[in-house]
Design a protein that fits this description.
Order of helices and strands: HHHH
Number of domains: 1
Oligomer: single chain
Number of strands: 0
Structural class: mainly alpha
Largest sheet: none
Low-confidence stretches: none
Mean pLDDT: 95
């Protein structure tokens, strides 16, 4: 968790650096890619740490903590991808209700596949 906390802090610092140093009106595609990439990394780190904290401290699932970290990381990646893709679609003017539903449906299907694979591995 220490490594993830440090990586999250570094990615948050990188995101804030990009926020204040890149002018969106003059930026090339690289500036936008760096903005969205650092935002994605920061969100994944924050949501993973929050998810692990919730699972271990509140739900008291401490028997296999590495499994809780893996599940929290997977959920954090999915939620962060939804947020960043929705933000990118909004910035380009393509964000509609059906696009958000399509994102959520896609992530739900991928999560279902992970759950089925996990269940098959246990039996």
């Amino acid at each position: 968790m220490l490594f993830m906390s440090v990586a999250t802090a570094l990615s948050a610092g990188a995101w804030f650096f990009v926020m204040w140093s890149v002018n969106p009106f003059e930026a090339s595609a690289a500036g936008f890619v760096m903005f969205y990439l650092t935002l994605l990394m920061m969100l994944v780190g924050l949501l993973t740490i929050a998810g692990v904290g919730y699972r271990v401290l509140i739900l008291r699932r401490t028997d296999v903590v590495s499994r809780e970290v893996r599940i929290s990381f997977r959920h954090a990646v999915f939620l962060s991808l939804i947020a960043v893709i929705a933000l990118a679609l909004s910035a380009s003017g393509w964000l509609h209700w059906w696009a958000v539903l399509a994102l959520i449906a896609t992530v739900s299907i991928v999560e279902y596949v992970f759950l089925v694979k996990e269940e098959a591995r246990r039996t």
